[in-house]
Amino acid sequence: MKCIINGKIVLENQILQNKVLIFDNKIVDIANEVPNECEIIDAKGKFVTPGLIDIHIHGNMGKDTMDGSEESLTTIAKSIARHGVTSFLPTTMTMDEELINNALKSIKDCMNNKIKGSQILGAHLEGPFINNDYKGAQNSQFIVAPSYDLIKQYDEVIKIITYAPETDKEFEFTREIRKNTDIALSIGHSNATFEEAREAINLGASNITHIFNGMNGLNHRDPGVVGAALTTNVYCEMIADEIHILKDLFQFILNNKGEDKIVLITDSIEAGGLDDGEYSLGGQKVIVKDNQARLESGNLAGSVMPLNKMVYNFMNNTNLDINKVIKFASINPAKSIKIDDKKGSLEIGKDADIAIFDEKLNCYMSINNGEIIYKK
After folding, report:
1. CA distances from 201 to 76, 195, 208, 239 (A)
2. Are 86 and 344 in contact (CB under 8 A)?
3. Which residues contact 24 (CB under 8 A, 6 or more apart)?
4. What is the side-by-side order of every strand in the sheet holding 119-120?
5. Is the dihedral of CA 349, 353, 358, 364 positive or negative?
6. Known catalytic membership, residue 241
7. What is the per-residue pLDDT for 113?
8. C-alpha–C-alpha distance, residues 203 and 345, integer Å
9. What SS3 state is found at 1?
10. If you count Cβ atoms within 10 Å of the first and of the last residue's Cβ in the chain, which end, N or C, has fewer?
11. Nearest-CA neighbor of 20 among 344, 296, 354?
12. Among candidates 231, 207, 209, which has minimal Cα distance to 218?
């Protein structure tokens, strides 16, 4: 048994002080006193929060999900643990079918054989079912029409599929996924009309992939995907690096979506955690300079900012306190992939996924299922 003392315990609707968080592999209790024979962790006045969950991340520290190897996934898992991320969805790219299958197989293997670092919850399949007009940093050579047959053998590994619903003939794929799986369908890299996006949502699409990025813009007569995202009850991924979306819009998004439907992600690529230079994404050259990752064409190619800093940026540019904004990288992503019965908050009986941060969201400790996976 372990316990954390002298911490500001961050719950969804309050911050507790002078309490003790007690846990083994699960959260056991929040009590007034330290139990006997308990290993003590002193938070020294810092915030004790749920572990962060990144549901959209391609890579970190020179490694990428599409490498299709346990070594790469382990490197990513260890690296992001330094930022308070205790679980994540390795995210694929629009590439050759064999490479995608290799990546999914590697993710499945690492789920079954627990690796060191942040826990792999499953996969986020970003492409190849997207629209070439809004492919972003995806490779158009490998874009194909949505097909359940292409992913059926990994439907228990995949937790999210990013797709363009306007390329889904008569929404057959949408209906099939909803009928046969618990996979969250996320609209992204899409040129769908407002009506097409809303119909997909009515049929069961529940998420939007990195809102405003990789989709048509908001127009007063043709609201498009953004309009559907802001006027329906879907979860909206958001890259809060102040590059993908102007920071002045953070409060606007919050005012429209509310606190329960925003999901902060990194969309981090292999350059995350490394210096400026030349890297790769989906077999394409990426140039990183001044915290911006771009293809040679100038298109943004994911981000290099860790999730804890995304949370800090959002807090710094809105009217929210830490306990509210932490939700966007903990319980909200957990709910979006239907694992909130186990993860996402410091509730008794849930997995002991915990992070310790200072007031600027610098991470001092990460704990997954009761095990310390990072200590500063």
Report:
1. 32, 10, 10, 22
2. no
3. 1, 2, 352, 370
4. 52-57, 85-90, 119-120
5. positive
6. no
7. 80
8. 29
9. coil
10. C
11. 354
12. 231
Q: Among residues 267, 340, 351, 353, which one is catalytic?
A: 267
The amino acid occupying position 370 is G
Q: What is the pLDDT of residues 214-244, one digit of tens each?
A: 999 999 999 999 999 999 999 999 999 999 9
Q: Taking the CB of residue 137, how many other CB atoms lie within 10 A of it? A: 23
Q: What is the pTM for the complete model shown?
A: 0.97
Q: What is the pLDDT of residues 136-148, one digit of tens each?
A: 999 999 999 999 9
Query: What are the backbone dihedrals phi and psi of residue 311, each rounded to the nearest 5 degrees, phi first?
Result: -60, -45
Determine the topology of domain 51-345 in CATH: TIM Barrel (3.20.20)
Indicate whether 114 pLDDT > 90: no
Burial string for 234-254 (b: 16+ CB within 10 Å, else e) reads bbbbbbbbbbbbeeeebeebb
Confidence of residue 28 (pLDDT cuts 50, 70, 90): very high
Give the domain ranges of the chain.
51-345
Helix (H), strand (E) at residue 356 = strand 354-357
Mean pLDDT of 329-350: 98
- Position 274 confidence tier, pLDDT thresholds 50, 70, 90: very high
